[in-house]
Amino acid sequence: MTGAEALRRGAALLAEAGVPGAAEDARQLLAHALELPRHHLTAALAMPLPPEALRRFDASLAARAARQPVSQILGRRAFWKHEFRVTRDTLDPRPETETLVEAALTEPFASVLDLGTGTGAILISLLAERPAARGLGTDISPAALEVARENATRIGVCADFLESNWFASVAGQFDLIVSNPPYIALEEMAGLSPEVREWEPRAALTDEADGLSAYRAIAAGAPAHLLPGGRLMVEIGPTQGAAVAALMRAVGLAEPRILPDLDGRDRVVSARNPL
């Protein structure tokens, strides 16, 4: 079987399983099976597929047909300027989260705290741009923290990581606090795609309540952990801007602003600790 024949068969199998973007996913999985960069795949399509590559491709197709995300099958996901290792223990870094990174970089900072760091994508991306800054990432999942540590080491960023439920084990103050917390309301979980609902860590998706529990905890603890003039910046769901801004205002944080992502949807709420 040539690479082209395997690719057609794989795309048809994924389409039959109801996988969106079946043809593109099949290309990515075939390149992965051949251990080739995707842009080198075309030259391999006319060649017979090595038996081991075919076995890897078939296993990847079966996983994708079961709706496992491509990033988990590949074990990596591109975000900002780097590729991050991802596992079933971490939330998959998403392009819209880059809105938070971009906004955080508009002002200088010497210290940053990332609450619920997951893969470490936000923290590591920020520290890679500001190598003189110190950074701490927290998570309640030891497995996620191991992934974050590995990503930091591979990308060449110096960061500390700590098991903590929000601020519970955090000491000190920071110029910048960032977070992409679980913000899906329990009633919204059924509407998520199988790739998200069945394969990503549930605790990173939902608070099992109204989707605002994490923001209440973060807002309550932020003033004591922000330096004067320091910023709190959180990712939100597109309908949560006003509610999250109100939570920040209620604890005395100033200048709450709601920032859109590239699709024009509310995506980040930012506020400042008074001087």
Description:
The structure is a single chain. The protein is built from 11 helices and 9 strands. The chain is of the alpha/beta class. The chain has 2 domains: 3-66; 79-272, Vaccinia Virus protein VP39 (Rossmann fold, 3-Layer(aba) Sandwich), CATH 3.40.50.150. The strands form 2 sheets. Strands 5-4-3-6-7-9-8 form a 7-stranded mixed beta sheet, sandwiched between helices. Strands 1-2 form a two-stranded antiparallel ribbon. The mean pLDDT is 97. It has helices at residues 3-16, 22-33, 41-44, 51-65, 70-74, 98-104, 121-129, 142-155, 194-197, 213-225, 241-250; strands at 76-79, 82-85, 111-115, 134-139, 160-163, 174-179, 226-235, 254-260, 266-272. It is 39% helix and 19% strand. It is elongated, with a radius of gyration of 20 Å. The longest helix has 15 residues, at 51-65. Belongs to the protein N5-glutamine methyltransferase family. PrmC subfamily. Residues 5-75 form the Release factor glutamine methyltransferase N-terminal domain. GO terms for molecular function: nucleic acid binding; peptide chain release factor N(5)-glutamine methyltransferase activity. InterPro entries: DNA_methylase_N6_adenine_CS, HemK-like, N5-glutamine_MTase, PrmC_N, RF_methyltr_PrmC, SAM-dependent_MTases_sf, Small_mtfrase_dom. Pfam families: MTS (PF05175), PrmC_N (PF17827).
